[in-house]
Specification:
- The structure is a single chain.
- This protein is an alpha/beta fold and 266 residues long.
- The protein has one domain: Rossmann fold, CATH 3.40.50.360.
- It is built from 8 helices and 6 strands, in the order E-H-E-H-H-H-E-H-E-H-H-E-E-H.
- Strands 1, 2, 3, 4, 5 and 6 form a 6-stranded parallel beta sheet that branches.
- Helix 1 packs across helix 8.
- The longest helix is centred in the C-terminal third of the chain and has 17 residues.
- It comes from Streptomyces auratus AGR0001.
- Pfam families: Flavodoxin_2 (PF02525).
- This is NAD(P)H-dependent oxidoreductase.
Length: 266
């Protein structure tokens, strides 16, 4: 594998930092290549603005149009181009972050806002049908992704009956709406729970789980998301009403899987 490890934690001495170090060591041991984007260490700017596209601030900023033009004409800000080059090189993206307020740290959200511009991460159209190529098809098809997240909550509270909600639901905007949207296949996430109460024994277990997930990542079945253009959605991008479904049919995120996702491994 050629891995881009995208890391968002402000302290490399943290549990997250130790796990990244262990993960990179594991990749080396198995002969994989890797590059790292440590966003806090890089002092990554997460705020998208007109300067990203050399856009004249006297005119209204239409982000999709401006970003696509800047990408096509080579006017993107240098820090954005550098991250796109890393992702172009990689066949695997590992996204590692602590789960804060049910989502990614702002610095990581800003990486996606600025790097996944139209023309680079999305914006293709099927010439035969005119339909946009997204949700399983697109510019990043052929790459795989894995989310590694730590949480202060106990494992059971991030399950289907836990007060925090099921982890796959919490990660749906990232796993489905960002990674799958751009064409990447998405492996089931790796959760490291009770991060603020880690003991040496718990850390050893977490490190072992991470090593095993990395070892098997090339052959791990991805989350069974539905392809937008695979026949399950009509021309209005709604699920066909006659699609075979259990009774009652699932709603919300669950409706967009072809089968129930595997339970989060704890």
């Amino acid at each position: 594998m050629k891995v881009l490890w995208l890391f968002a934690h402000p302290d490399q001495r943290s549990l997250s930092g130790a796990l990244m170090t262990e993960g990179l060591r594991t990749l080396d041991a198995h002969g994989h290549q890797h590059r790292v984007s440590d966003l806090y260490a890089m002092k990554w700017n997460p705020v998208l603005d007109a300067a990203d596209y050399a856009h004249d601030p006297a005119h209204r900023l239409h982000v999709g149009e401006a970003s696509q033009r800047a990408y096509t004409e080579g006017h993107l800000a240098p820090d954005i181009r550098a991250e796109q080059e890393k992702l172009t090189w990689a066949d695997t993206l590992i996204v590692q972050f602590p789960l804060w307020w049910y989502g990614m740290p702002a610095i990581l959200k800003g990486w996606f806002d600025r790097v996944f511009v139209k023309g680079f991460a999305f914006g293709l159209t099927d010439p035969a049908t005119g339909r946009p190529l997204r949700y399983g098809d697109g510019k990043l098809t052929g790459k795989r992704a894995l989310v590694v997240t730590t949480a202060g909550a106990r494992a059971a509270t991030l399950g289907p009956r836990g007060v925090n909600g099921d982890l796959n639901d919490l990660l749906f905007p990232l796993q489905h709406g960002t990674l799958w949207y751009t064409g990447m296949s998405v492996a089931p996430p790796l959760l490291i729970p009770a991060a603020d109460r880690t003991t040496p024994t718990a850390y050893a277990t977490a490190a072992t789980r991470l090593r095993e997930r990395l070892r098997t990542l090339p052959t791990t079945d991805p989350l069974p998301f539905r392809h937008q253009n695979g026949g399950d959605y009509d021309d209005d991008l709604l699920l066909h009403p006659d699609l075979p479904q259990p009774s009652p049919p699932p709603t919300g995120p669950a409706a967009h899987y072809t089968a129930p996702p595997p339970p989060v491994h704890l």
